[in-house]
Amino acid sequence: MSEHLERIRKVQSLLQPKQALLLFANSYKMRNRDVEYKFRQDSNYYYLTGISEANGILFIRKDTRIHFCLPKNKQEEIWTGVRLGKEKWKEILNLDESYELQEWNFKKLELLINIETLYYFFGENSERDKEILELCSHLNKKLRDGKFGPSRIELPLFLHEMRMIKSSQEISKLQEAVKITQEGHIAVIQAAKHGMYEHELEAILESTYLKHGAWGGGYGHIVASGKNATILHYTNNHDILKDGDLVLVDSGAEKDYYTADVTRVFPVAKKFTSVQQVIYEIVLDVQKKAISMVQKGVKFWDIHKETIKNLCIHLKDLKLFQESLDEIIEKELYKKYYMHKTGHWLGMDVHDVGTYYENFQSRILENGMITTIEPGLYFDSLDDSIPEEFRGIGIRIEDDILVNENSPINLTASIPKEILEIEALKS
Ligand code: GLY
Ligand code: MN
Ligand code: MN
Question: Which pLDDT score, from 0 to 100, does residue 145 have?
Fold first, then answer.
C-alpha cells in the first residue's frame, strides 16, 4: 500500500463516527491577467493523496473516502495538461465515491448531514470559509427534520502532528533534497568572484536544483553579500560581490515535496579576513553545541536558551557588553546581534507545521522530528555603537537535524562549513 493510502487509513482511524475531514487542493493563483504562478500542491493535501493535480476536494469519514476532481476535458487538457479523471482517482486512493468537481455543489450539503465536528483548515480562503459556514448554518436550521450540521469546525491539527514525525521514506526524500542542495552550495562557493552579481549565484542555485528535477528552491534564495547579510530575509539578490566581503547563502532545494534549509557563509576572495574568522568561529562553535543537544527527550526551547547563553558568553568576550551575563539574557540585550530563533521544524514546508509548545510547555523532541539549527550574529552596518571592524558582518550557519534516540543526525553535514574546507573549495 502506498504511504499516502496508509496516511488516509490513519486519519480514518483517528476520526470518530460523527467527524469528517474536508481538505482542498490548491488552485492556480493568478500572477497577472491570465498568467498563473507556478503551481505547487497544498502540502496537507499532497501528504494524503500524493497527487499534484489542482482543485480537488477530499472528504474523509471513518468509513468513507470521497473525492471530487477536475473533469477530463480534451480542450482544457491541451492547455494545462492531462487530468487523471475520476476513475483513476478512485483506483489510486481506493475511494468509495469519486466525482467530478461540478458534483460538489449537489453533494456538499448531504455530506455534512449529521456530522458533529468538521475538520477543515479555516482561515486560508475566505470565500470557502463562507461556503462552509453557510452549509453548516443551513443544516442546523433543519433540526426539526431530524438533521443537523457540524456544530464544531476544528483545524485538523492531527495532520500536522502526523507530518511532524517523519517516516523513513520522508527522510530519504529530504536526503535527496539535501544532495541537490549540497551541489548548489558548493557550486556557488566555487563560482563567487569579485565583480559578479548576487543574482548570478542565485541562478547557479536554481539551475542546479532544476537540473536534478527539484521544484526549485523550497523558499526564496537568500544570496546576501557584505552588509546585505545583516538583513535576515534579504532576497533582492542584485548587489555586486566585492573582494573582502562575505556572502551569506540561505537556500534549499525542494524535491518531491520535501525541502532542505541550509545556510553557509563564505568569502568572495579566497580567504576569510581575521575579523570575519573570529565571528564565524563563534557562530560555528555555538551551532555545533546546539546541534549536539538535538536528541529525544530534550525540550525544544532549551536549545534556543542554551544557544543564547553561549552566544552571550562570546559577545562578552568580544567586549560588546559590559553588563553581566544574566542581565544581557534577562533584558534580551543580545537581540541587538541575534534577533531570531535557533531553529524551526522542517519537512514539506520550510517552516514546517507542528506546535512548539504543549500545555504552555516546550515541546519535547521525539524521534523522527526534524529541526533546523541556525544561530547567527548580525552587526548593523550603520550602528556606530558597534566597533567599526564588526559593522556589516552577518553570519548564520544552518543545518537540518533529525532527532534520533541517542545522537543527532545532521542531514546536511556533508555541506562544508569549516573555514579550512570552505577556503579549500576556493583555492
Ligand atoms: N530560510 C528561512 C529560514 O532559515 O528560516
Ligand atoms: Mn531555517
Ligand atoms: Mn534558512
Answer: 80
Return the CATH number at 329.
Answer: 3.90.230.10
Whole domain around residue 139: which residue ranges?
Answer: 3-162
CA 329 / ligand 1 centre spacing (Å): 24
Q: Look at residue 1 in the predicted model and tell me its pLDDT.
A: 80
From ligand 3's centre to the CA of 185, what distance in Å? 13
**Band of pLDDT at residue 335, cut at 50, 70 and 90:** very high
Residues 161-182 as b or e (16 or more Cβ within 10 Å = b): ebbbebeeebbebbbbbbebbb
Ligand 1 atom closest to the Cα of residue 374 is 4
Which pTM does this prediction carry? 0.97
Count other C-beta atoms under 10 Å from residue 340's C-beta: 15
Mutate to test the pocket of ligand 1, among 231, 261, 265, 396 (most ligand atoms within 8 A of CB): 261
CA 14 – ligand 2 centroid, Å: 31
Domain total of the chain: 2
Q: Are 122 and 153 in contact (CB under 8 A)?
A: yes
Ligand nearest to C-alpha 263: 3
Residues 300 and 398 in one domain: yes
Q: Terminus-to-terminus CA distance in the chain, angstroms?
A: 50
- The span from the CA of 422 to the CA of 186, in Å, is 9
Kindly give the distance from the C-alpha atom of residue 263 to the centroid of ligand 3, in angstroms, as a whole number: 6
Residues 77 and 196 in one domain: no
> Ligand 1 site: residues with CB under 6 angstroms?
219, 250, 261, 344, 350, 374, 398
Shared-domain flag, residues 371 and 355: yes
The grid coordinates of residue 324 equal 553581566
Residue 5 has pLDDT above 80, yes or no: yes
Residues 241 and 280 in one domain: yes
Which residues line ion ligand 3, judged by CB < 5 Å?
250, 261, 398
Among candidate residues 190, 263, 202, the one with its CA nearest the CA of residue 236: 202
The pLDDT tens digits of the residues spanning 363-379 come to 999 999 999 999 999 99
| Residue 86 shares a structural domain with residue 193 | no
